Amino acid sequence: MEFEALKKTPVFQALSSIGKRIYQPNGIFYWSNRAKKEAKINATIGTAVGFETDIIDGGREKLLTYYLPELKQYINLPPEKFASYAPIAGIPKFRDLWEKWIIYKGKNAINLPSGTINVSGKITKPAICNGITNSIFLVSRFFLNPGEKIICPNKRWGNYNSVLHLQNELEIETFQFFKDDKLNIEGISELMLQISKVQDKIVLILNFPNNPTGYCPTKNEIQDILNSLKNFCDSSNKPVIIFCDDAYEGYSYSDHRVGTSIFYELIDLHPNLIPIKLDGASKEFLMYGGRTGAITLGINSSWLSSSEKEIFLQEWENKIQGMIRSTISNSNHFYQEVLIEIMNLGFEKMQESRNKIYEILKKRYFASINAFEKYKTEGITMDPAGGGFFVFLNIDKIQADKFADHLLLKYKVGTFPIVSEKEEINGIRVAFCSIPLEKIEETFRRIRLTLSDLS
Ligand SMILES: Cc1ncc(COP(=O)(O)O)c(C=O)c1O
User: How far is the CA of 38 from the centre of ligand 1 (A)?
Assistant: First the structure.
């Protein structure tokens, strides 16, 4: 594959050396897929295949991937839906449904500056991988070489450090997430400018609702981010790649905060802007152990003619498959099938049942805000929030590790301390998502007691 169409877009220029080099050869999956359609005897893939009657009494006279019959006690799906490998980038039906899910979320967006947004025909087919963690690993390797810089907020999910820095050898450049209790958009722009002087591309990771603060931007803030990104792109000819870590998409609790991903607004913002949506089933479908995530690129309408776009889609697919096949090979088959079943019920139905949990989390969120207000005292502040699974409490003077230790030892409340002198963070993350409503006030009372004990 020559990647002619890909080369016409800023995406190719922005790839790392791995990204430029990788491709998915016509390997075993190609031959096995062909054999499935064309062969009478299929001697391609390395899975043990035979008649179900060979392994269980009353089995079907059907060729399938052999499985341990005991599994049927636990799994209420036919074995062809869990025993065999899933295709490299996911089951086509599941990918179609995930694409529809992304389109559905855009069409039902609330509070985005452009209102609702239809991204149908403007995105690549979501490529399924092993959760958002895995997608961050894959896309950061795909776009950045070891030693290159990626922009993250100082308040970020701790695993970014392991994936981006320890694993992929990137330099994490951070901006202060908040300035005067608002999103520090100026800080992002300054860092982009600084990096553009030493690097041929700018890569930024945005995560709303945020971990660890729960922060969701307001509509105005989203508009300000968009203006500032557009201004930057107008004045620089370097590609700007934005990874939207949408782990908590949909979990915003306040009427004036945005729970839909900023990805939708980024797609046609500027030809040099490359938005990549990273979303997953862990939080969206409360299926953390399902290890299912998706990588989706937003296609700027000025990049290609419609005939070139078809080729581009195949080329993007080939490269993403190359990345997946050479690392995790393919993702969990069973959970993709389960999610197909759930999604087939219809997104409204699916949301209706998720809504019960959403409403519980929303109550806990407001209970946390109220309890914090009730017990608040000098020496502790809560970051602006609005959604997600957590709130973050900044602690003055007392080391957050020591604080969390005391809170746990004396008051039996577990929280997660985050301390980084360099990034000016000292505080505890309170996961209200895992505290029953009736225990929330008590949690904050004990936090207050800890502060009094240690002050
Ligand atoms: C911001 C953020 N991104 C990604 C993840 C991980 O998602 P996944 O379970 O899909 O790997 C988490 C989970 O805690 C998270 O907080």
Answer: 41
